[in-house]
């Protein structure tokens, strides 16, 4: 008898499901403004990063609209069962394919981020770098993983390309899974690996801050190709 894999629903999936249910039942109307991330976090009893993941997924599938500085709103025109496109990122379980998509997508995001980033973008990235450093000092794997995810999403946001940002948001759930898996394989086997990972993120930030688009793109590629090499060494095909 083949073993049965039991999937446990993740926090952001629960939040996403509840918000969708509220929209479906009319408790949240088209055009209505949602509570802030802070208030939603308190309401659901989860961290802000969990709320952001849920909102990113809802935005990617057309249910909500996030206006920078203006809040989050239920879309005035809601998706229908016919118009909802399937998210190939969510359906894919192939770690290598996801990584290959990340290499191409994130190298472009980093190049645009270096060209277009503003002071607010740099402040956000710097805050995340600080969180990474704190996680390294505390040897807090979970905190470091979450900061890693937020760093890559913040780069996409700094590209100021809505389509790139939307694609990265669509990938956010898989980003969380793949970062966790690859860290288990290599990054956190010893302290030196953790320190090297931090330095790589610091170098990417420095290149974006210096508006060096070519270097920013190359550093992202090098960073992700290292993960690809780990998969090759371990003989992992998916």
UniProtKB/TrEMBL annotation:
Record bears the keyword Transcription: yes
GO molecular function: DNA binding; DNA-binding transcription factor activity
Pfam family, one: GntR
SMART domains per record: FCD, HTH_GNTR
Alphabetized PROSITE patterns for the sequence: HTH_GNTR (PS50949)
Alphabetized InterPro entries for the sequence: GntR_C, TF_FadR/GntR_C, Tscrpt_reg_HTH_GntR, WH-like_DNA-bd_sf, WH_DNA-bd_sf
Span of domain HTH gntR-type: 9-77
Keywords: DNA-binding, Transcription, Transcription regulation
PANTHER family tied to this protein: TRANSCRIPTIONAL REGULATOR, GNTR FAMILY (PTHR43537), UXU OPERON TRANSCRIPTIONAL REGULATOR (PTHR43537:SF5)
Protein name: FadR/GntR family transcriptional regulator
């Amino acid at each position: 008898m083949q073993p049965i894999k039991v999937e446990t629903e993740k926090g952001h999936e629960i939040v996403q499901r509840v918000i969708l249910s509220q929209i479906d039942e009319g408790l949240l109307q088209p055009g209505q403004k949602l509570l802030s991330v802070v208030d939603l976090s308190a309401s659901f009893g989860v961290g802000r990063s969990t709320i952001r993941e849920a909102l990113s997924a809802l935005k990617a599938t057309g249910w909500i609209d996030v206006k920078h500085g203006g809040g989050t709103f239920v879309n005035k025109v809601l998706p229908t069962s016919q118009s909802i496109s399937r998210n190939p990122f969510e359906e894919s379980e192939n770690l290598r394919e996801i990584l290959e998509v990340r290499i191409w997508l994130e190298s472009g995001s980093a190049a645009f981020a270096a060209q277009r980033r503003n002071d607010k973008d740099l402040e956000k990235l710097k805050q995340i770098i600080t969180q990474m450093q704190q996680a390294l000092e505390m040897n807090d794997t979970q905190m470091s993983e979450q900061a890693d995810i937020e760093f890559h999403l913040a780069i996409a946001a700094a590209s100021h390309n809505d389509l790139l940002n939307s694609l990265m948001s669509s990938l956010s759930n898989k980003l969380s899974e793949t970062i966790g898996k690859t860290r288990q394989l290599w990054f956190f086997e010893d302290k030196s690996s953790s320190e090297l990972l931090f330095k790589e993120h610091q170098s990417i930030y420095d290149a974006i801050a210096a508006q060096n688009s070519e270097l920013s793109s190359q550093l992202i590629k090098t960073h992700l190709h290292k993960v690809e090499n780990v998969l090759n060494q371990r003989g992992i095909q998916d």
